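Researcher: I need the complex structure. Ligand is C2G. Inputs:
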Amino acid sequence: MRKVITYGTFDLLHYGHINLLKRAKELGDYLIVCVSTDEFNWNEKKKKSYFTYEQRKALLESIRYVDLVIPEETWEQKRNDIHEYHIDTFVIGDDWKGKFDYLKDEGCEVIYIPRTPEISTSQIKAELNNGKKE
Ligand code: C2G
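Model: Output:
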């Protein structure tokens, strides 16, 4: 069984996230999504997500491509996760291109998937705040 893992905040879940998860699942048989906790989001990414960790976890667990959702609490946990969950492939959007190549040293394939253009959580928030979209 080929196991795939990906990491992210996945706030205000949108079709860009779904495209990523669909393509990640196509690379294996079992997809683990490591979703950033509220503390990690704020302390490490200066992001305050609209939905809490528990809400974002529940949303991700409802997606047909996703087999398991676990918390992302540190940048460093990826190495350990790969061994603990016997991961074959690490996947993430190409906005992170090159940033996680070191995971190949752990015997894991690293794949950067093109982001879905024209959609992002920050853009959704901005357009709602500016009244561009009802
Ligand atoms: N994504 C995408 N297309 C978009 C928006 C997001 O493909 N239009 C992808 C991102 O590239 C990422 C995933 O969806 O692979 C989740 O996006 P974010 O929630 O923005 O994740 P991020 O804040 O980049 O956190 O340790 C890694 C970090 O936790 C990644």
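Model: Summary of the prediction. The chain has a mean pLDDT of 96.
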